[in-house]
From TrEMBL:
This is DUF433 domain-containing protein. Pfam families: DUF433. InterPro entries: DUF433, Homeodomain-like_sf, WH-like_DNA-bd_sf. It comes from the Archaea. The lineage of its organism: Archaea, Methanobacteriati, Methanobacteriota, Stenosarchaea group, Halobacteria.
């Protein structure tokens, strides 16, 4: 699965394809809540370990966009 943006879902936020799980929620679980990628797959059973790593890579490749956007705190 890849990272997709759909204006009709999650207000166009990047999500993991076919899951609707937002990249920023995965990044928040990793950066702010201290979960490691294996633990994130337990929080989001629809994700594989590679999906989590793909989401984190996308987040860090686009970190300026995520940090400059006015975003509400993500819940995990």
């Amino acid at each position: 699965m890849g990272i997709v943006r759909d204006s009709e879902h999650s207000d166009g936020a990047p999500t993991i394809e076919e899951t609707g799980i937002r990249v920023k929620d995965i990044a928040s679980a990793y950066e702010h809540s201290g979960y490691d990628p294996d633990e994130i797959t337990q929080l989001y059973p629809d994700l594989s370990l590679s999906d989590v790593h793909r989401a984190l890579a996308y987040y860090y490749d686009h970190i300026g966009d995520f940090r400059s956007a006015s975003s509400e705190p993500a819940s995990v």
